[in-house]
Amino acid sequence: MKISFNILIAACFISCTGQPGQNGQSGFALFAEQPKTVYAYVPEMNNMEMLRMTQMPGWQLLAGTQWIGKNYTNSIKGVNETMNANFFLDGGRSYMQSSLAQSGTSDGTTIYLNVMSAADYLDYVFCRQFPNVKNARRTMLKTLDMYPETERQQLEEFRVTAYNNMLQIIRESPGGAYEHLRGQTVDCSTAEYKWLQDGDTIVHMMQVVLSASYIDTRGPYLNTSRVSWSQVLLGTYTTPVKHRQKAEKDIEQINLSVKWNEQYLTSLNQIVLANVQRDYAEVRRIQGEMAQSAIRHQQNMSRIIQETNDYVSNARREVYANRQASQERINQGWRDAVVGVDRYMGVDGKVMEVPVSMGNKVWQSAEGGTIYTSDSYLFKAVDNLYDKDGSLQEFRQLQLLK
């Protein structure tokens, strides 16, 4: 499997169906008896065309854009029920490396993942895609040093372009004077996994391109270093071995046919740039407030000391009076933190536990059965939203218990 850099993609669950000028409809596209061109539109942008591509016979296609925090990712998914095959092309996803946060967890705005090689990342994604497969084994691994020189050169050119783009963003953003980009790396890997299912040997192929940025922030009241890295592009497909050749041929034709609307991509990039500029402006504002706060602190030291003493005295009395209730909450919090779960009130009124790594939002079907979260693997939610008859299921967002 070989993926190309012009497919930087993710999902808002918009369909690929119809002809130019027609509005997209929810759900999978209809089956095609012959190869045909299908289109994806964006209702939130006055039905602007997002992309067009070739739909091969027997395949259902889905494409769209999803905002994750302040970053977007574009994706395409294809399913062929006859061959029991599917593929997934996924664009950028951002992560932060931190020794202070558990790998695979999120604080609501940032996802932490301390995996810095493409090969390890593929194992991480595979385990999330197929958590119940017990007999899977990785049968092939291709690391960056095993790629042809031409492909490594292409990746290096991509790295240089991304590095220069980030330098420009830093220079043009408020507060950029405090930012220093120490370097940027790129990694690529391909892996193959196989397992036995219902008498068929299933093969799963994955390829990923990763990019890591090493950034220092140095200011009067703020000094930090961080590693910000991202999945640039992920491509996967799954098929029984007996249909592998046909599935690979179809997927390659679909992949090569994808044409993104430049106006659409430009609009998305402008939104991201505006978000980055606002973030830098906020950092600069906070630093200014910290400087003013320090000045006021020096001018009012005696008053602050007195207020602090009064506060400490009152706090001691309050702590003593509320110790029992506070201890119970602390014990529950420590238990949840050690186990790695959040507690939610289910639709049936019973408390349920969900792993923290699954995201900060949880939904459950009205019948109390299907559950999915904001960090479920992309499109898993869409698969659950529609039954085989195409009827929409009702989901309810659960309340987090503190």
Total DSSP E strands: 20
Mean pLDDT: 77
Structural class: alpha+beta
Low-confidence runs (pLDDT<50, min 5 residues)?
3-30, 377-383
Helix content: 25-40%
Shape: globular
The largest sheet is: 9 strands, antiparallel
What distance lies between the first and last C-alpha atoms, to the nearest angstrom? 46 Å
Rg result? 25 Å
Write structural notes for this entry.
The chain has 402 residues and is an alpha+beta fold. The chain has seven helices and 20 strands. The strands form five sheets. Strands 1, 4, 5, 6, 7, 10, 11, 12 and 13 form a nine-stranded antiparallel beta sheet that branches. Strands 2-3-14 form a three-stranded antiparallel beta sheet.
Show the helix and strand layout:
Layout: E1 10-15, E2 36-42, E3 48-55, E4 60-68, E5 71-80, E6 85-90, E7 93-97, E8 105-106, E9 111-112, H1 118-129, E10 137-142, H2 149-172, E11 179-197, E12 200-218, E13 223-240, H3 244-257, E14 259-260, H4 262-299, H5 301-321, H6 323-339, E15 341-345, E16 351-355, E17 362-365, E18 371-373, H7 380-385, E19 395-397, E20 399-400
Antiparallel strand pairs: 1-4, 2-3, 3-14, 4-5, 5-6, 6-13, 7-13, 8-9, 10-11, 11-12, 12-13, 15-16, 15-20, 17-18, 17-19
List keywords for this structure.
7 helices, 9-stranded antiparallel sheet, 402 residues, 2 domains, globular, disordered N terminus, 3-stranded antiparallel sheet
